[in-house]
């Protein structure tokens, strides 16, 4: 009888230990992190960009869990913050500018981009002084006479990364809501242009306003420069270099 009780007790202990071990193993099982597929990362792999170039991750489809998508992104710059443009495009913003002359890496899930920044060329448009000043590290500032947006068509205030460069471009007033038949309408061949906004603000050569540059603001919002100076700026600026406008 005593032996029977001992066997029953041992069986109960073994069963309890087995249940405890099984429960511990189940608790240790962790589901793997599943990342959202990435369609593109910008700056593109191998590119050389300005220090204000927007770091953008474009996902292959709509993202239902934004916090999870943000956790999948890593940029080799400390700090920063995220904003969303719709359900598929995530932007990372540094605290200030990207470091100059740096090799940087972005990863988002299994996608990766390695790129470089330039020396940190910047420009400042002073709409009160009618000047456009370019700052290149290691060189004296270059002050250029300029003409910005006239009353009612003022150049927007802020800091804008150069979005694209165009050696030759058509400026069509219809793209900013002005009919060609209007006294304000225009259709012009432009040169040495850098786009600052999707709304049609450019830095560009403007031989038609040379007499006003440095004295009066007469444009429809763009930053007008003398042709030779516009060509020089076109040669030294990169996409992503910042332009700050102020009064």
TrEMBL record:
One of its GO terms (molecular function) is peptidoglycan L,D-transpeptidase activity. Gene3D superfamilies: 2.60.40.3710, L,D-transpeptidase catalytic domain-like (2.40.440.10). InterPro entries: Big_10, LD-transpeptidase, LD_TPept_cat_dom, Transpep_catalytic_dom. One of its GO terms (biological process) is regulation of cell shape. Residues 1-27 form the signal peptide. The active site is at residues 204, 222. CDD domains: LDT_IgD_like_1 (cd13431), YkuD_like (cd16913). It comes from the Bacteria. Residues 121-246 form the L,D-TPase catalytic domain. Keywords: Acyltransferase, Cell shape, Cell wall biogenesis/degradation, Lipoprotein, Peptidoglycan synthesis, Signal, Transferase. Pfam families: Big_10, YkuD. Pathway: Cell wall biogenesis; peptidoglycan biosynthesis. GO terms for cellular component: extracellular region. PANTHER family: L,D-TRANSPEPTIDASE (PTHR30582), L,D-TRANSPEPTIDASE YCIB-RELATED (PTHR30582:SF2). This is Lipoprotein-anchoring transpeptidase ErfK/SrfK. It comes from Nocardia pseudobrasiliensis.
């Amino acid at each position: 009888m005593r032996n029977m009780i001992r066997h029953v007790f041992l069986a109960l202990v073994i069963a309890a230990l087995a249940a405890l071990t099984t429960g511990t193993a189940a608790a240790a099982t962790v589901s793997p992190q599943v990342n959202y597929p990435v369609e593109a990362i910008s700056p593109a792999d191998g590119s050389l960009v300005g220090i204000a170039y927007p770091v953008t991750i474009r996902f292959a489809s709509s993202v239902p869990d934004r916090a999870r998508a943000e956790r999948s992104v890593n940029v080799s710059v400390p700090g920063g913050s995220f904003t969303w443009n719709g359900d598929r495009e995530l932007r990372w913003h540094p605290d200030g500018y990207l470091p100059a002359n740096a090799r940087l890496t972005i990863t988002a899930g299994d996608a990766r981009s390695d790129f470089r920044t330039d020396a940190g060329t910047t420009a400042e448009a002073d709409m009160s002084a009618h000047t456009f000043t370019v700052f290149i590290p290691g060189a004296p500032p270059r002050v250029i006479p300029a003409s910005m947006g006239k009353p009612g068509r003022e150049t927007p205030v802020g800091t804008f990364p150069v979005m694209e460069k165009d050696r030759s471009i058509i400026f069509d007033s219809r793209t900013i809501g002005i009919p060609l038949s209007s006294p304000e309408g225009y259709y012009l061949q432009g040169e040495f242009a850098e786009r600052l906004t999707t709304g049609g603000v450019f830095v560009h050569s403007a031989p038609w306003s040379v007499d006003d540059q440095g004295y009066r603001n007469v444009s429809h919002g763009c930053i007008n420069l003398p042709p030779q100076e516009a060509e020089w700026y076109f040669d030294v600026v990169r996409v992503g270099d910042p332009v700050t406008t102020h009064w």
